[in-house]
């Protein structure tokens, strides 16, 4: 893994949108200045009633983390050094990756004047907190970690208009 203090690095932004057609995922990899390097979009995943019953409370983490998140990241050519998500349900994805995953609560981000240690980590990987804190320090106040999620949601909306997000 690259040292964020000395090498160029990439950020991955992963979000999941839940709508009547199912769950959709969008994954945007940017450089350290927020410029897009690669974008991936999942098809809609709509669990049936039997799956809902059998998976129970594990259904959402499975769909969001394993099925959609891991698939999008695996298909992406450009490697991210850190993955940021705006959906807490995606944090279990960290158990499947060597890459640190941080969750940003957009409501908390809006209310924080000092932008340190806003990213939360998976409880089984407390060592990620140091790398995420370094990332936040290096980005400073000039980089809004929530802004790429707006771009992803807008891209999902445009793809939906083009019929790209049909159920898979």
Structure description:
The protein has one domain (10-162). It is 34% helix and 21% strand. It is built from five helices and six strands; from the N terminus they run βββααββαβαα. It has a six-stranded mixed β-sheet with strand order 3-2-1-4-5-6, with helices on both faces. Strand 1 and strand 2 (22-31) form a beta hairpin. The protein is globular. The mean pLDDT is 87.
Summary of the model, kept short:
With 168 residues, the protein is an alpha/beta fold. Helices cover 34% and strands 21% of the residues.
Give the arrangement of secondary structure elements.
Elements: E1 10-19, E2 22-31, E3 36-41, H1 49-55, H2 59-75, E4 82-85, E5 101-103, H3 106-110, E6 120-121, H4 128-139, H5 147-162
Rg for CA atoms: 16 Å
Structural category is: alpha/beta
The number of helical runs is: 5
The total strand number stands at 6
pLDDT < 50 runs, ≥5 residues: none
| Count of distinct structural domains | 1
Features:
5 helices, alpha/beta, 168 residues
